Amino acid sequence: MEFIDLKKQYGRIKPRIQQRINAVLDHGKFIMGPEVAELEKQLALFVGSKHCVSCANGTDALLLSLLAHEVGPGDAVFTTPFTFIATAEVICLLGATPVFVDVDSDTYNIDPTKLEEAIVDARKGMVRGATVAKPLNPRGIIPVDLFGLPADYDRINGIAKQHGLFVLEDAAQSLGGSYKGKRVGNLADITATSFFPAKPLGGYGDGGAVFTNNDVMADRLRSLREHGKGSHKYDNVRIGINGRLDTLQAAILLPKLEVFESEIKARQDVAERYSSAFKALMLMKVPHVPDGLLSAWAQYSLVVEKRDRYLSKLKELGIPTAVYYPRPLHLQTAFAHLGYQAGDCPIAEHLSDRIFSLPMHPYLEIEDQDRIIEAVRKAHGEATAE
Predict the structure, then answer these.
(1) Quick one: which of 375, 376, 368, 198 has its CA closest to 303?
(2) 230 and 280 in a common domain
(3) Could you tell me if 149 and 171 lie in one domain?
(4) For residue 113, what is the domain's CATH number?
(5) Greater confidence, 324 or 128?
(6) What is the pLDDT of residue 129?
């Protein structure tokens, strides 16, 4: 059994992918070919955003977004510690300071109440009780739509407006989800997503995109992804990066986008079957999706005690699992210079010790779902009997 089965998806759309790849091989425009602009147009229509600027990967999507906002030394950018390193890594690369804010115990996304407290503290030069060299300049917020579930954007956008901050939605896992009738990609000032193969909309290599409704920001992003290009390639008006999306990846993503709606629906069906089976099990927490929100279900994750017992039993029964994330960012070596200690983000730390994910993809057959459900029940029975 595959944790994420990309081969089944390929079998469904193989002729269209081959046709698209062959077209690129025939016209030979491997850098910024016509498929790139076509994909950007289709993605913008899909999410309801005015602009889509594609790029080389999800990390570049975040980096470009911060570069476009001219984030730099002395600035504070608030984000969650319960995510992949890329979210905070790009803040440090620009010399700014990531300020980690603990997550909500139900959604595992950044907690808006704690976020507002952290903004006030940062202006005083306080970060979780540790005094920094001088007061930080709060500039932006990067909520992460963890496992595909949008963060609480009504509250986050309200806090940002009150404090004069921008909001960068990290939608690496959530493209295809929605928040109170609005699709991911159109929920914040700017949105970054990833087309890594395992994402809900994934290519056959790296890729990413940035969405915005701001014309000036869109022009700046297009310049930044091509070395700060101005009117032509040898007229550079700012310092940028080489962050373009390959034409071949755009060609692959176009037919994948055609079936994306049906795949999101299939993910909902799998998640509903899982939750229906697991919600009655004592001492096991199933994912919570607030009313009005739709998760893209990049992952389906359970929170349990004695996680190692579950993982061992599921492996014995042939069920693949993964742990996202076993160590929160504020406790990782790369961020040790920030001075965080165990206990500073207790909910994120609690989750890191207990969470694990089950196979989740649109092509998970009913028989395999039943096998996974039964295996989890067996593992649960053994873990809770001890």
Answers:
(1) 376
(2) no
(3) yes
(4) 3.40.640.10
(5) 324
(6) 47
Looking at the 3D structure of the chain, how many domains does it have? 2
Instruction: Evaluate whether residue 112 is within a structural domain.
Output: yes
- Which residue range is the domain that position 78 belongs to? 6-101+108-258
Structural tokens at position 295? 């998760």
Report the C-alpha gap between 207 and 202 in whole angstroms.
8
Rg of the Cα atoms in the chain: 21
Reading the block at residue 47, the tokens are: 């999410």
- What percent of the chain clears pLDDT 90, i.e. is strictly above it? 93
AA letter at 53: V
In a domain, 167, yes or no: yes
pLDDT by residue (tens digit) across 42-75?
999 999 999 999 999 999 999 999 999 999 999 9
pTM, entire model: 0.96
The answer on 267 and 243 residing in a single domain is: no
In a domain, 1, yes or no: no
The CATH number given to whatever domain includes residue 371 is 3.90.1150.10
